[in-house]
C-alpha cells in the first residue's frame, strides 16, 4: 500500500485528536452537518436514490436469469410508501430528517406537554 494512503480508522482518530486539541477549529465546523445534509439531498434526492435501488434490484435478477438461475420475478421488497413511513417514524421517535424540519422540531417529551 502506498505511503500516502490511509484508511477510515486513521482519519477518524486523527480528526478526533485534532479537534480535541484545537477548540477554535470546532467552531469552523458549526453548521457543517446541515450543509452536508442539504448537499447530499440536492445531489441524491430520495426519489432518485429509491429508483436506483429498484433498478439495481431488477438488474441483479436479470443477471441471475442470464446465468441460468430460473426464478419468478421478485419485486423490490420495500415500497416507497414504506420508506416514507420509516422517515415519519424516525422523525417522531428520534429527530428531524431534514434541515427544514429541524427548525421546528421539538423533542418528544416537549411535544406531549
Instruction: Determine the oligomeric state from the structure.
Output: single chain
Q: Approximately what portion of the residues adopt beta-strand conformation?
A: under 5%
Amount of helix: 55-70%
Number of helical elements = 7
- The separation of the N and C termini measures 57 Å
Calculate the mean pLDDT score and round it: 89
Low-confidence residue ranges: none
Spell out the helices and strands N to C. Answer: HHHHHHH
Report the biggest beta sheet as strand number plus sense, adding barrel if it closes: none
Overview in brief:
This protein is mainly α and 113 residues long. The chain has 7 helices and no strands. It has helices spanning 8-21, 23-28, 32-43, 46-66, 80-93, 99-104, 108-112.
Give short descriptive properties of this protein:
single chain; 113 residues; mainly alpha
Describe this structure in words.
- The relative contact order is 0.06.
- The longest helix has 21 residues, at 46-66.
- The chain has helices at residues 8-21, 23-28, 32-43, 46-66, 80-93, 99-104, 108-112.
- It has 113 residues and is an all-alpha fold.
- It is 69% helix and 0% strand.
- The mean pLDDT is 89.
- The protein has seven helices and no strands.
- The protein is flat and about 60 Å long.
- The N and C termini lie far apart (57 Å).
